[in-house]
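Mods, move this if it's the wrong board.
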Amino acid sequence: MAARPVIAVFFKNMSFRSLGDDILNMVVRALNEGRRSNAASLIFYDRADALPNFIDSGEYRDYTAVIGSIPSNDTESTAAWHRLETLVPCVTMMSEPHVQSAERNYVGCDEKTGIALLVDHLIEEGAERIAFCSYGCDSYTHRRCQGFVRALGHHHREIDQRLVNAFDVHRGAILSSHRARTEAGTDRTAYRREIYRSLLKEKPDACVCDSDQLAVELNEEAQARGLSVPGDIMIAGFNNSPVALGKKPFITSVDQNLGRIARTALRLVFDIVNGRAPRYGNEILITPRVIIRNSTLRRSVLVNTRSDKALMRAMNELIAKHFSDRAAASVMASRLGLTPPYFLKRYKALFGTPFTRAVNDMRLAKAAVSLKTTNKSITHIFMENGYTNHVHFNKLFKRAFGRTAKEYRRTYKKKR
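Not the wrong board. Structure tokens:
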């Protein structure tokens, strides 16, 4: 009988207290789901304190493989991780180290695509003069800056260096002056405020920030200068962290799909260990999604200026588009700039029926049409309409139409 795989997982500052963090919690939960489905064990370590000793003591020999999130600005841990990659199968997850090697395996967010999606959205909302705001010098900052330059080029927009504070848009590299400021122990708060004021002085009508924290601070600086968000300037962030919902207007952001990244990293580890993937050279980039909120809804009519009729019309349009989405309420709430609980409350108040019932009615009606007019399998039909469980679908369908989906299809085939 094969030995049970044991995977070591290294995170920054892993502790019971940090497990309260929403993002880390999501990643840990996704890893544990994958662990159970693969009959494996996971042991979590504090990357900053334990990684060098993990190698020097030979403790790594007790593990089948190792997964780690190693920030590129931590040179000691990055160097230790590079050593570990030569000793045991390793997969770097979420945060890609600067050190590139033939031994590298990486699973993370497609940063450039995330930025491109933000730029596309801002241009749809009428942006003409888009800035890019960043602070760090990490590898992810570099990729997001590159993504911004590429996205503007795709839209045939001229790139103004004055609107990009940290990145040389011609050389494709972090500005040496910015790197010097961030690495010299400069007062971070003062320097970031200087960045915001410098960018706002150039009067952009939209700004992409490489983190939600920067977006929130830029929003505060803009409003302190008498600017309206999103009226005078639209502001978007990256990471979809809780801070984006801290103050109004809520910040449009990029959700990296960290749960999927974690599950994919664990699956890659098992593929490497079981010979289904090469030991080295694997890179998997997960496509993120944009979570649209009020901070960028300029052309779209803002919720607080809508009449009930306009809001009902917008909700009807969105439900027709997103009824099959398994997270329809969250998607629609985000598009309207509302929190999901408030969206559900407003929907019921406006239509007199719970949102869940309305979605189910639409899904079942669409499924019924497909059963009558197509030869698609019943499994295909219930899945394309947002259901994941055949028994649950049949129960709802029979309640609505008085017969199972199979019986319903048979009835209409006889009529034809």
